[in-house]
Write a structure and sequence with these properties.
- With 395 residues, the protein is α/β, with parallel strands linked by helices.
- The protein has ten helices and 20 strands.
- The strands form four sheets. It has a seven-stranded mixed beta sheet, with helices on both faces.
- α2 crosses α4 and α5 packs parallel to α6.
- It is globular.
- The N and C termini lie far apart (65 Å).
- The model has no long low-confidence stretch (mean pLDDT 94).
């Protein structure tokens, strides 16, 4: 049996652990017995010295990220079994061997009981993102496990964690290939094709989490004019055109994003006269579109990444959606989203309610949207429900 540094919690501070929440905050810790470094595996006990869990220690407000509530050996088989469980979930949901999909999320952090670890599959490339030093220390082992459980699917494994590791960690880290080398990756998403820039693109290269919402959009776009705000690589734009839109305009403040969007439109459609893309400020652009667009997609980057930014972020969601409601055509459809983890679905819906009220338009909810089955949410970690969306009808 492994022996790890012990952490004792203050009296009555074990309640969240008993509810199987995977985080222990620094304020709950009474004492640490022994020397400890960032990323070490620790054994956590309550004030009466009863075992609670095992996890990785890190410097910061979240002091321990729990990966086991059992006192067992932590070896390659332990991690491999967690990977296999995640793989089975994707297999049961029909994503793993879907004939018209070659991209999915294999590991979704706390949602797969592997806190701080993200693994996305793009055709034959696996992209890993580590959000803690403890998980980063396992990178070579995880690469071996991936090759063992997906021997026919993986030709390249890329570690893209340079910008995701905790800032307080005293570590210098560069993105790197753990296996293989860079290969062309062409994503197939229900027949729509996308180039993925895993080395330089945002997140792991593509927003897989919007897959089902992009598919839903198609059913609203026949003979419609569509505006895609914060388009990134044009995922919603391709779906709108696939759904029969007569015209789609893609807007992003990044010229690189616009270039990727144009490339993906060209990849999917011979006739590109139905699409236009512009590098522009969204709020300024919205001033000049009165009653032109039938469908508008509002998918901004995270407005709040920390709790102290919540108030400002909510005002941002209100102002943005209010302007969209004011400018969309009568009987228009709005797909609006928040990907900020610290913004709850209740906060987001309240912000959209306020935007509708201030715009003085009648707005009805048609669908509540979220993340797909390969981005599961643990009941014990509701913070994992980061993607919130609404499909709205604006009279």
């Amino acid at each position: 049996m492994n022996h790890f540094t012990k952490i004792f919690l203050k009296k009555n501070r074990e309640k969240s652990v008993l509810r199987l929440h995977p985080w222990i905050f620094s304020g709950a810790i009474e004492k640490i017995c022994g020397n400890i470094q960032e990323g070490d595996i620790v054994e956590v006990l309550d004030f009466q010295q009863h075992f609670l869990c095992l996890g990785h220690f890190q410097i910061g407000s979240i002091a321990v990220r729990i990966f086991s509530f059992e006192k067992i050996d932590i070896d390659k088989n332990f991690w491999k079994n967690k990977f296999l469980n995640a793989l089975k979930l994707r297999e049961k949901s029909g994503i793993l061997n879907h004939p018209n999909l070659n991209t999915f999320r294999l590991i979704h952090g706390e949602g797969d009981f592997l806190p701080s670890l993200i693994i996305d599959i793009y055709d034959k490339t696996a992209v890993l993102q580590f959000h803690s030093i403890g998980m980063l220390r396992q990178k070579e082992m995880f690469a071996e496990i991936l090759r063992e459980i997906l021997p026919q699917k993986i030709s390249s494994i890329f570690n893209k964690s340079e910008n995701t590791l905790p800032h307080k960690a005293d570590i210098s880290h560069k993105n790197e290939y753990l296996f293989g080398e860079k290969i062309p990756n062409l994503v197939n998403e229900y027949g729509n094709k996308f180039f993925v820039d895993i080395e330089e693109g945002q997140k792991t290269g593509f927003f897989i989490d919007q897959r089902e919402n992009r598919k839903l959009l198609e059913s609203f776009c026949e003979n419609k004019k569509v505006l895609n705000l914060f388009c990134y690589t044009g995922g919603f734009s391709v779906s709108a055109l696939k759904g029969g839109a007569t015209f789609v305009k893609s807007i992003d403040s990044s010229q690189k994003a616009i270039d990727l969007t144009l490339r993906n439109i060209e990849l999917n459609f011979e006739n590109q006269n139905f699409h236009s893309a512009e590098c522009a400020d969204v709020m300024r652009m919205l001033e000049n579109i009165d009653n032109f667009y039938d469908v508008i997609i509002v998918d901004p980057p995270a407005f709040a990444k920390h709790l102290d930014a919540v108030k400002k972020a909510l005002r941002g969601y209100i102002n943005l959606n209010k302007k969209v409601f004011e400018k969309i055509k009568s009987s228009g459809i709005v797909f609006t989203f928040s990907c900020s983890q610290v913004i709850s679905k209740e906060m987001f819906r309240e912000a959209i309610f306020t935007a509708a009220l201030e715009s003085r338009r009648n707005v009805q909810i048609l669908y509540f949207l979220g993340q797909p089955s390969d981005h599961p949410v643990s009941f014990f970690h509701p913070e994992g429900e980061y993607l919130k969306g609404l499909v709205l009808f604006v009279e």
